[in-house]
Write a structure and sequence with these properties.
There is one protein chain. The chain is an all-alpha fold. It has one domain. It contains 13 helices and no strands. Helix 2 runs parallel beside helix 6. The N terminus is likely disordered.
């Protein structure tokens, strides 16, 4: 009989570990113990040291947050004031002078060699050269700020390419007119053919990219405004929250010392708390003011300026349509419709089917506004302005401009009536005349009032931008840093003698 043996249980074999694993395993508990000990604050000295360290971190955070937000917002204010706004103004001015160049070419064809029709050929050519110089200046400014924007660069190339072709056509037109000794309003057939080509070139290839420059620059300004104003408003919240957190830690430290050491007030900690309150409160107030300056500059001033400068550019285009209407009978109806469309862009009125219904509708809208300033029955660029009247003197200036525009519109109808009656020479004289009671006199009087209205908004824009630039002085670094360092020093000074008692 064979004896059975019970197998001896074997001890489990421990898993093999690499040399690095014991060290890592040892470090993890040690790290947890250090963190636990740092956060546990088992006794009063540890609690005091922990609160001081937390206060120092929050003071640094307050300085960093405040400085960074002020630096970003102030840089945005400068960008809007120093670059974005001039970009928009030069692009709009470019559109205006391009149209007036074409108007002067039409005036050369209209007056021919006559000297008794309000404007002479030499006067028209002088204005043409002035417009050409202004276009050069605007293009130089636009090129200087185009930078890496491919859209802006492409628009500039298109304007320059088209402008060269246009000037070549204009030179031929003027030469043909001078050589032909034509009658006023009856240019040589070849000159009229070339003028049609020049006008079509302007409308199809030059003005669209010029308008694109205005739109792109205005969109960039608006984007900058939205970002920087949001930063300012969010900055108010962040500065207040960080300041409140720091104040809470300082108050907790004050209460702890008062409870343990029976000291009702620690002067150094009280001073640190006061600096924190002032720093956070004043920083938040100034950031709120920055947001307000940006709102005034963009929404109240720039939006009106943009609408009014575009209105001015379109007005010059409409004024050119009057000369085109007279010089080119074959396209007279086309230019009359174009004038009416531009009038609607300036002061949009419902229920107007033609230019001859416009005056009655405009008079009705003006009467309604006079009776109630909240009753703005028109749209277009002037509708934008009349819904955004903000600054002292702006309403009176806007009403003067609108009334001057109403006179100019009425004079336009007189031009058409003279032409329809067969009095072309009288229509030309009235259209180009600068004497009181003539069309160009009415137009330039309206333009003068319009520029005065624009200036009110531009001045307000400049004031808001300057206030924004000055409002952040010192807060993009020095003030928050000095204040936070003072808080840290005072906090350390406030607990130094208390901690010495535990040694």
């Amino acid at each position: 009989m064979t004896a059975t043996t019970t197998p001896t249980p074997t001890a489990p074999v421990p898993p093999r570990v690499t040399p690095s694993e014991p060290r890592a395993a040892a470090k993890a508990p040690r790290r947890r113990r250090v963190i636990s000990r740092a956060l546990r604050w088992r006794n009063t000295p540890e609690r005091i040291r922990g609160l001081v360290a937390l206060a120092a971190l929050l003071a640094i955070a307050l300085a960093v947050v405040t400085s960074a937000i002020f630096a970003s917002v102030t840089s945005g204010v400068r960008e809007i004031g120093d670059r974005a706004d001039p970009e928009v103004n030069h692009a709009t001015d470019l559109y205006l002078h391009l149209n007036d160049m074409d108007a002067q070419v039409a005036n050369v064809l209209l007056v021919a060699g006559a000297r008794d029709l309000g404007m002479s050929r030499s006067q028209a050519l002088t204005v043409y050269q002035q417009d050409r110089a202004a276009v050069d200046s605007d293009l130089e400014q636009a090129a200087a700020v185009a930078g890496s924007s491919k859209a802006a660069q492409l628009a500039l190339v298109r304007v320059l390419d088209g402008l060269g072709k246009y000037e070549a056509l204009a030179g031929q037109i003027i030469y043909l007119e001078q050589a032909s000794r034509s009658q006023p309003g009856r240019p040589p057939a070849q000159a009229l053919v070339l003028y049609r080509q020049a006008t079509d070139l302007l409308k199809d290839q030059i003005l669209p990219p010029a308008q694109q420059l205005t739109n792109a620059n205005a969109a960039a300004l608006d984007s900058t405004y939205q970002v920087k104003r949001s930063q300012a408003l969010l900055g108010v919240v962040w500065v207040l929250l960080t300041g409140l957190a720091l104040l809470a830690v300082l108050v907790a430290l004050q209460l702890l010392i008062a409870a343990r050491h029976r000291r009702l007030l620690n002067p150094a900690l009280a001073a640190a708390s006061l600096i924190t309150v002032v720093l956070a409160t004043w920083g938040a107030v100034l950031l709120g003011a920055q947001a307000s300056h940006l709102f005034v500059a963009k929404s109240e001033a720039f939006d009106s300026t943009l609408a009014l400068t575009q209105a001015r550019a379109v007005s010059y285009d409409a004024n050119a349509d009057e000369s085109r209407f007279l010089v080119d009978p074959g396209r007279a109806l086309q230019y009359q419709d174009a004038f009416e469309a531009k009038s609607q862009r300036l002061v949009g009125l419902a229920g107007v089917a033609s230019v001859f219904q416009y005056d009655a509708a405009l008079a009705k809208a003006i009467d309604a506004y006079r009776a109630d300033h909240a009753d703005v029955r028109f749209h277009g660029y002037f509708g934008t302005e009349f819904r955004n009247i903000t600054f002292p003197g702006e309403r009176a200036a806007a009403q003067r401009t609108l009334l001057a525009y109403q006179v100019y519109e009425r004079y336009d109808r007189h031009i058409r009536a003279l032409n329809r009656s067969g009095n072309l020479r009288g229509a030309i004289a009235f259209d180009t005349g600068l004497a009181p009671g003539q069309s160009n006199w009415a137009f330039y009087r309206y333009d003068t009032d319009l520029q005065a209205l624009i200036k009110i908004n531009q001045d307000a824009f400049v004031q808001a931008i300057r206030a924004g630039e000055n409002g952040g002085t010192g807060w993009n670094g020095p003030v928050p840093i000095i204040g936070s360092v003072a808080v840290i020093i005072l906090a350390l000074a406030g607990v130094r003698s208390r901690l010495a008692e535990y040694r």
